[in-house]
Amino acid sequence: FDLTLCRWEQLPDMSCQRDYFSVVCLDGKVFALGGNRDDSRNLDAVEYYSPEENTWRSAHPLATAVCGHAAAVLDGQIYISGGCDSHRHCLPSMWNYHPSRGCFPRSDMTAGAGRAGHVMLALGSRLVVAGGLQPLWMGFGDQLLCELYDPTRDSWSSFPALPRPHVSPGATVLDGRLYVVGGFSANTATDSKWVHCYDPKEERWEKLGAMPHPYTDLKACSLPLPDLHDLH
């Protein structure tokens, strides 16, 4: 979508059909990592889109086939957390991924036995993991606990818990604050319309209100709006 022209442009299709995958941008390229194909097979495949070449190319596969994971870029490095493996087990894993060398394991997440359907975003010099679901003795349940990862120390620390469930929500960082939007609750099997914001200065989550309708499996991003007066 071109914000200046207010119109959509169709790009080439990915070479591999996938859902419940993660996307990050690094060095001017868009990386699609893992996911699920036809609701029957998890993927370890990674591909990236190059705007200059207007095409998709394959990168090094992940260490395991996974879907429902989260990925983020911090200090020029791609990190991948959690997700479900081919046996529908939630993973506590954390990886540092390199497009040509693959995955390098880091310390596992510490809140619960695993996490999927969550978000992970860079906040300052660390990564915040929030929302998603966790494995229970039978099935899955909401995960309200959040975690903070320090890549320098390869360590996890606690982070204020979410006040409401957000499984497969949209999330973005704007002006140093973390926003989590929509998703659903695994406990009640209902979609969510709630919007929550974490302010590092206040060290707490704030409910900002609700969207007009509940939405799940959505994505969010922050973009600078063009100054339309400069275009005339």
TrEMBL record:
UniProt-listed InterPro entries: Kelch-typ_b-propeller (IPR015915), Kelch_1 (IPR006652)
UniProt keywords, alphabetically: Kelch repeat
Pfam families (UniProt xref): Kelch_KLHDC2_KLHL20_DRC7
N-terminal signal peptide: none
Keyword Transferase: no
UniProt cross-references to SMART domains, sorted A to Z: Kelch
Protein name: Kelch-like protein 33
